[in-house]
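I am still getting used to C-alpha cells and would like to learn alongside you. To get us started, please write out a protein record for me. Start from the sequence, derive the C-alpha cells from it, and show both lines together. Once you have written the record down, we can walk along the chain together:
***
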Amino acid sequence: MPIPRLFIIAASVARLIRKERGGERVIEGYFPDQPGRSVFVQIEESRSSLILETGGDGVPEERADLPPAHAETLLAVSQGQVEYLRTSLAIGSHELHALHVLRPGRLNLVAVVGTPEDGQHLPPLPWFGPEVSAEPAYRHCCLALDGTPDAPDVELTNAALNSLLDLLEDRFTTWPLPVYTGGEDEPAADISARSEPTVLVPGTEADEEIDDLGIEDAVIRELARSLQPRRG
C-alpha cells in the first residue's frame, strides 16, 4: 500500500468539502509504540478493526476485523485517541481523503494516496497548504498520543477556490498540471466566516461545531461563485 502524502488545508476549504460530500466519522485508539511497530484499534461506521503498523511509515500492514463490542473495549483502555471526519474524493485513479480532526484538537488535513510510481510526484493542488508528509507530529498515532501540533494558517485564494469547485463538480479526469493563475491569487473571502452550512454524518451524532452550520446549498454555491474573477 503506498504511503499517503499529507497537506494542511484551510478550515473554510474543509468545511465546503464536508458541505458538498458529507463525511464518515472514524475513531482510533492507540497503544504505546514499540520499536518498529504500532498497534491501534479503529472504529468506522461499518467496520471495526485492530491494526498493526510496522516500519514507522504509517502504513497498515495487518488488519483484523473485530466485533463492535470488542473494539469499544479496546478503545476504552487505549492510551490516546484521535477522532476525525473523513471525506473521500478522487481524481482519476488517485484518491484523496479530507480529514477534519475533532480530537484531541481541531486540525484540517488532506491525504493523497497515489501509486508508488507517481503518487509522490504529483504537483499539489492550489487549495493544498503546506506539505507535512515527513513530519511525525501529523501522523495519527502522534496526534492521539502527543496532541495536535500548532498548524500554520492557510490562505484561501480565488485560484484555490476555483480548483476545489472544479473537483467537487467532477471536472477533473486526470490530475491537473500547474498553470499560471495571473491575478487570481488574491485572497478570497473566508467561506467559514460568512456561511454556516449543515453537515450530518450518516449513522452518528453530528459534531457540535459542524451542526451549528445553517445555510442552504444554493446560498453557499452562489457565494463560492461570486468569489471567482470576472471574465471579460
In short: The longest helix spans residues 11-21. Confidence is low (pLDDT under 50) at residues 190-216. Residues 123 and 178 are 7 Å apart (CA to CA). The radius of gyration is 18 Å.
